């Protein structure tokens, strides 16, 4: 081949290599490091990085939401604990208030809301039901004698407790749960229902019932009518204060009456009341059952019994 031919062949080969190089460069991406990655692979890498970034952001947001939820839940637990703690404290204080006859001024202000919620949220009703169940179970495990001398004493003033009630001195005072009239009314109705329920169960079990009251003897007829109206009948005796017993402290009055019953040959199996004056002193028999009271009640100025409805 002539020199001219060789020259043409070299030019053709160079053009072919140049075209092929341009084509390969068009289908590759070049990094400064000198590594070549196909365009499709580069797009997949970028998409993967974007996906990882989105996932990390999503995870961060989820963690923040969970942290916020945990903080709210923890705050709720603390609030529930505080409420439970206040309730326990006020219940214990109320017990000592009853035992020691503390004045309303001695009661902690924090317990005012607790006292209302105790009734409104149903805990008072549950406590009453528990008391009825405990007394019923005990009296169902023992049987009265056939001579009628085994008796159960019930404080009937729990049945008639309303906006007025009798104090230790035989006077009447107002029942007012921290100014919450609805709460006071609800509490008295709940106790009345529980009293009648237990009364019926004791009668059905064959126990003779001796009923005690702080009311004066002159109110006997009215009291009998109220008992019958409430569905309570068939009692063995109804004990009310004589004139010479009216000046007595109610604890002394109840103790005296229980002593008289024992001297007459009666055997007291149980005493049932919500007030400590009927549940203290001698001659209490084998068991005492205390109806729960509202956490505390505010007594207004005592009034002479003659000024109240008969």
TrEMBL record:
Highest taxon listed in the record's lineage: Eukaryota
Any one Pfam family match given in the protein's UniProt record, by short name: Acid_phosphat_B
Keyword terms, alphabetized: Membrane, Transmembrane, Transmembrane helix
InterPro entries in the record: Acid_phosphat_B-like, HAD_sf
Chain segments annotated as transmembrane: 35-65
PANTHER family assigned: ACID PHOSPHATASE, ACID PHOSPHATASE-LIKE PROTEIN
Protein name per Swiss-Prot or TrEMBL: Acid phosphatase
